[in-house]
């Protein structure tokens, strides 16, 4: 069920971003990555673990640094970071102890991360492709 919830939420978030045009802004997906990275810090604070807050903050800082670097440089770094965060979700309980993390969170977050990475990757690929020829000798403009 946790994967399903993450899948539905990510489709809703990325779909809304697409329909509203939020994803036309370069900073949209890096901001999503920053927010995703901070949830484990929030859970650590809720769980009352000082050491967990510190460790989760250090990990979140790495992801936030990649988000900034991707925003300023190449957005493919953000795609990669979202995919790596999905792996982090999968392995989180093996890497460190954070008593505040709900049992359903890693699976839900992993599903969200994967869909967000795919959406941003597809958007970057679409932008990289030359416009299609409409058959009249003129190129169509993207909507």
Description:
With 143 residues, this protein is an all-alpha fold. It has one domain (2-13, 28-127). It has 5 helices and no strands.
Intertermini distance = 37 Å
Largest sheet composition: none
State the low-pLDDT regions, or none: 137-143
- Kindly provide the radius of gyration, computed on alpha-carbon positions and rounded to a whole number of angstroms: 17 Å
Structural class: mainly alpha
Helix share, percent: over 70%
Total number of distinct structural domains? 1
Helix-strand blueprint:
Elements: H1 2-20, H2 28-47, H3 50-72, H4 76-95, H5 105-128
For this entry, give a set of tags:
143 residues, mainly alpha, globular, disordered C terminus
Give a nutshell description of this structure.
The chain has 143 residues and is an all-alpha fold. It is built from 5 helices and no strands.
